[in-house]
C-alpha cells in the first residue's frame, strides 16, 4: 500500500502542475511499521472525506455537465 500512496500523491501533484516533493508528501503521510511491514499512514486529520457517502445515486447529474431545457 505504501507504493500506491506514493504514486497517488505524485499523480495528484503533477495533475495540478506542481512538482511532488518529500516535504509535501510528509504533510499528508507518516512512516509506520507494523509487524515487520513498512508503509505510510495518514498524518493527522488530513482526510478528504470525513463522512463517506452511503451511495452515489445521482452521480450522472454531478459528473456530466447538463444544461436545463
Structural description of this entry:
By secondary structure, the chain is α+β, with helices and mostly antiparallel strands. It has a two-stranded antiparallel sheet with strand order 1-2. 38% of the residues lie in helices and 17% in strands. It has one domain (2-63).
Short description:
With 69 residues, the protein is α+β, with helices and mostly antiparallel strands. The protein has three helices and two strands, in the order ααββα.
Q: Which tags fit this structure?
A:
69 residues, alpha+beta, two-stranded antiparallel sheet, 3 helices, 38% helix, 17% strand, extended
Derived structural class: alpha+beta
Strand content: 15-25%
Rounded mean pLDDT score: 78
End-to-end span in angstroms?
Answer: 46 Å
Run of helices and strands:
HHEEH
Which regions contain 5 or more consecutive residues with pLDDT less than 50?
Answer: none
- Fraction of residues in H or I helices: 25-40%
Q: What is the overall silhouette?
A: extended
Question: Count of DSSP helices?
Answer: 3
The total count of strands amounts to 2
